[in-house]
Write a structure and sequence with these properties.
This protein has nine helices and no strands. It has 208 residues and is an all-alpha fold. The chain has one domain. Helix 5 packs antiparallel against helix 9. It starts with a helix and ends with a helix. The model is unreliable at 96-107 (pLDDT under 50).
């Protein structure tokens, strides 16, 4: 298994990577600012579930197929772009009545969780990143590579949950202020919509 030194170095690097602005933490930020910190934590849970999929893909070698197959990469990228544009459309067309402050209904909880999963899984750049990043910390002398990759993926998920959970808590405090003003909420939805469009365009231009 992993040495303490390797685990500590990897966890530190993972925390720094999670702090760097990217599609996932921006997604947590916008959802938390619109729907409250609980919604942000649910989205974070969904994103972390998506990371389990990517970790499994690396361990099983599936991510290598995405790296070498233009078709697989293109399909994932297209689905991801379409989903981001769908989220943008929802943000632009939703009304103030759609906001349920800090207490999303059960159905909304499931929807937010699925959003996080789809957002993460349909981004092929995450698979490629994991494929390039995780094996660097694997030591053939310390046991099966599959188990080490699983452990590294788990550490990355913990780091992501800590950082994104903090983002959700911070942005959730902003939501309480926004909830007092329909105009502020409308402006935030437009900002969220523009962010989703920008992320979709960035993903559409992504290359292997």
């Amino acid at each position: 298994m992993l040495s303490i030194e390797t685990a500590a170095a990897f966890f530190s690097a993972s925390l720094l990577l999670a702090l760097a602005p990217g599609p996932d933490n921006l997604f947590v930020l916008t959802q938390s600012a619109l729907h409250g910190r609980r919604a942000g934590w649910i989205v974070t849970l969904g994103l972390c579930t998506g990371l389990i999929v990517h970790t499994t893909a690396v361990a099983a070698g599936v991510a290598a197929i995405v790296q070498t197959s233009a078709t697989a990469f293109g399909v994932l990228k297209t689905v991801g772009c379409a989903y981001l544009l769908y989220l943008a459309w929802q943000a632009f067309t939703s009304s103030s009545a759609d906001n349920n402050a800090d207490r999303p209904k059960a159905a909304a909880t499931g929807q937010l969780y699925r959003r996080g999963i789809v957002m993460n899984v349909t981004n092929p750049k995450v698979s490629l990143f994991f494929l390039a990043f995780l094996p660097q910390f694997v030591d053939p002398m310390r046991g099966p590579a599959v188990l080490q990759i699983a452990a590294l993926g788990g550490l990355f998920i913990v780091a992501t949950a800590l950082v994104f959970g903090s983002v959700a808590a911070t942005a959730g405090a902003l939501q309480r202020r926004l909830a007092r003003s329909d105009r502020a909420l409308a402006a935030m939805r437009r900002v969220a919509g523009l962010i989703f469009v920008g992320l979709a365009m960035k993903l559409a231009l992504a290359r292997r």
